[in-house]
Each structure stands twice: as structure tokens, then as C-alpha cells.
Amino acid sequence: MIPYNCDTKNTLTPRPYITNIEQKSMQNANFRTAIWTGRHAQMTLMCIPMCSDIGLEMHPETDQIIRIEQGMALVKMGQSKNELHFQFEVYKDDAIFVPAGTWHNVINIGRTPLKVSSVYAPPHHPAGTVHRTKEEAEEDY
Fold it and tell me: Which of 18, 46, 35, 22 is nearest to 134 (CA)?
């Protein structure tokens, strides 16, 4: 039997990959880090400072699942950026399911950095993306 290549240093090609997402999330200090990108899905980690957010956004053709690894947040979603009627507080271990075409924002309302993991399907960011800050991420778009 040939073992899967689980090289944690080479995540730029669609290879099998195994990691502890909670541990990796807690270690991530970047606003966004794409840790794995496949042909049909992508995993990113985010660290949102206190009183900050991911930024209001919408992905026309990408579904997204966001999991809270640490902290608490206010999630806002809706069909237009001016009508975010779906609003809930979320906490560690909660998952947020964002259908393609839905406007959404995740706002850190806690007293610690908000740590999240996120799955995009299909991938949304270039493989290997690292944005140290929200401002750096906004420059790319």
C-alpha cells in the first residue's frame, strides 16, 4: 500500500492533506491564510482582531462554510448589502453556512481575536494566499 503524501509544507497542489484545524487556527495570526486548495474546494484560516470584521462580501458562485474556532461574533447575511436581515450571535464550535450569492459579514464582538476556519467551494482565493492584515486583503480585491 502506498501512503498518502501528507507533507504539511506543500499545500499549493491538490494533494491529500491532514491537519488539526483547531490547533492550526489557534496558531494562525494572519487575517487570512489559505492552508489547502483543491480543484473543487479550499480551506482558509482567519484571525479577526477585536472590534473588526471579515468585511461585507458576496461570492456569486462560491458556497462557504465558516466555523468559529475561538471567540464570539455577530453574523449578518442577506440578499443585498443593504438588507442583512439574517443576524445571529455565534460562538466557538458554531458553523455558518453561506450560500453562493448571499451578502455576509462576520463581526468580532468578543474580547479576544476571533479565529475561524472557512471552506470555499469552489476555491475563492489563489492557492497559498496569505494576507497578514485586512488592509492587505482589500488591496488584492
Answer: 46
Contact in structure between 123 and 14 (CB atoms under 8 Å): no
The values of phi and psi at residue 138, to 5°, are -65, -30
Per-residue pLDDT reduced to its tens digit, 18-41:
999 999 999 999 999 999 999 999
**Residues whose CB falls within 8 Å of the CB of residue 43, separated by 6 or more in sequence, listed in order:** 21, 34, 35, 36, 37, 117, 118, 119
Averaged over 73-98, what is the pLDDT? Answer: 97
Cα-based distances in Å from 101 to 61, 62, 98, 112: 7, 8, 8, 30
Q: Looking at residue 118, what is its pLDDT?
A: 97
Rg (CA), the chain: 15
SS3 content of the chain, % helix, strand, coil (to 5): 10, 40, 50
